Amino acid sequence: MPDPTPPALPTAVVDPPRRFRIPLVWIIPIVAALIGLFLAARTWYEQGPVVTLQFRTGAGLEPGKTRIKYKDVDVGQISTVRLAADGSHVVATAQMAREAAPLLAEDTRFWVVSAKVSGSAVSGLDTLLSGTYVGMDAGKSSEARRDFVGLEDAPVVSLGVPGRSFALHADTLGSIDVGTPVYFRRIQAGQVTAFKLDDAGQHLDIQVFIKAPYDRFVTIDTRFWNASGIDLKLGAEGLQLNTESATAILAGGLAFETPPDGDAEAAPEGQDFRLFPTRVEALKQPSSNAQIWQLRFTETLRGLSVGAPVDFRGIQIGEVIAISPDVDVDAADVGLQVDIAVFPERMQSRKDATQDMSEADFRAFVDRLIRRGLRAQLRNGNLVTGQLYVAMDFFPNAGTAKIDWTGQPPQLPTQRGSLDELQATLGRIAAKIDRLPLDDIAAETRRAIAGLASAVERTEALMQRLDGLASNEVRAAVAETQQTMAEARAAVADGRRLLASDAPLQQDLRDSLQELSRAAQSLRHLTDMLERNPEALLRGKPEEKP
Amino acid sequence: MRRGLTAREAGLMSCHVCGQLAHIPADRAALLRCPRCRAPMHLRKPSSVSTTWALIVAAAVLFVPANLLPMMTTSSLLGRQQDTIMSGVVFLWQSGSWPLAAVVFFASIMVPLLKIIALAWLTVTVQRRSRRNVMQRTRLYRIVEFVGRWSMLDIYVITILVALVNFRGLATIEAGPAAIAFGAVVVLTMFAAMSFDPRLIWDPLTEPGKPAAHA
Questions:
Q1: What ipTM was estimated for this complex?
Q2: What global pTM score does this model have?
């Protein structure tokens, strides 16, 4: 091999060799591996349990996108959505976060949250933008569970909220729905959580949940009623409008209240209550103390219905509970039997005198009342609709009656209805009028009128005779009077002539008076002159000086 | 191909820094320095194979989280979405952008993977002192070195998006942990390609005692 290297080339400098060279480059894969391991470990650590959820439909469920939220925090994600083997429902598997594992208990609930607008609430509007998600409500059970059946609707009350739920029984649902508020003194104290028809289809079982501070006001004696709509009352105090709240007017609502003298013991969880249609009905005295009486009417009961009030001078003391025909075959008498329930508490006086009354005393008391004339009577409550009610009142003029205490229930004596009685009285008057001898009366009257006419004629003749008798004497008297009057007039004319201005007497008198006046003037001249010249009396009239 | 004389055979070596040509001293184990600029001198890249191996292993390890972890987190009013590289490709494919899906798939998944495999193959054949396909392996090495810088496509896209889409409350895009892993994979494979000494591919041909094979 030729050596083309010029000898002038330097040789590389030799340094002493290093002791040991750590292959530093291997740190890089070690660090990478550590990072990889760390990531893997973290992923594995964060990986929570996988749960399966059954839903009726897969609406809104997107694998890898739909999240599961508990208290609005992501706790998982739907990973797959597939049909069940028989195609009846949808099975979704979800990867839960590790911290959600203890929340997956036996009674944990899942539901699909989507936008919902109802009369009383708008919810889930955020899902319009972000898409639906699956809501979760953590259960309290200690037993873990991994497969769940999703709810159709979001539960109204989550499990963590303290409070108690009760069952209400109603005949109809009215405007109640899941989520309908329950008010206590107009505070929203709870909600309707569920309702279902009972097995017989006769009643509705409504579940309500009352939140914590208010649930202790629900006692065994508490009354629930339907507070939907408006209660408009025109009373002596004016127009009264009673509502629970604007929401209750629109969307319905329930309310409850405990009578003031009610049992203070709080009702246990799940206690059954009756749901009354109105507040007035709910707060009536309990019917357990009601006394059942029977009334027998022979008049029509059209307009009387079960539930019609029994009234004592304006106070409602009971209600009609049954109406049935009562046929007495022996007497061939068909009457109508009305059962009423009377609540004696409402008739209690303030002194509570009737409270501790024995059975015998009570019967004697009622007997005395009956003797004083206490009767039941049908009265017209409303002239337009013809509604009847049963009135208890005293009729002092009523005939004697007695209570049949042996009857079950005892029968109270009745009085015919006021309208009915009016009809009967009118009938009696008509019959009497009918019996009057009207024809005879007419003949008599005619005869009497004829007699009266002849009497009038006779009176006229008498008057004429009287007229003739009086006229002659009167005429003579009048002539004489006229003569006297003429004489009197002549005398007056003489007098007037005597006094006229051209009468001679008057002329003479005037002349005399003029003379007298002249004489008086002369006398005055004399006295004047004498005053100026008193000496004239002695010396005579002085000469006029030139 | 006509085989020429190599520097090693001529007993010469050159400085990588200043290019000074120098004689190889007799003491091979010693640390050599350039007589002109004092930079360390060596005939071949020192411990090239083991360095390459280390970097390839690191890249291979990081390739796993780069593909499994979310690459990009998109938060907007409509919710939060995390995308891995593969989910992005699937999304593009399903939305009909097949060419774009293919580009992303090749640039982000196939290229790093093929680079790791190619480098591993090159290192293995060098270690086994294989004399076959020498020309092809050299060409492969050139391709690997050239392609390396282009597989940062994903990282570029994410950095641009993170900077552009940042409307607080309305929409923000954040890089996920996979972005770091992916960037590390790309950088590590580039370093691996750099640390690999292509002269090692040719060295077995000059070794004594073995017949010279023509590629």
A1: 0.72
A2: 0.50
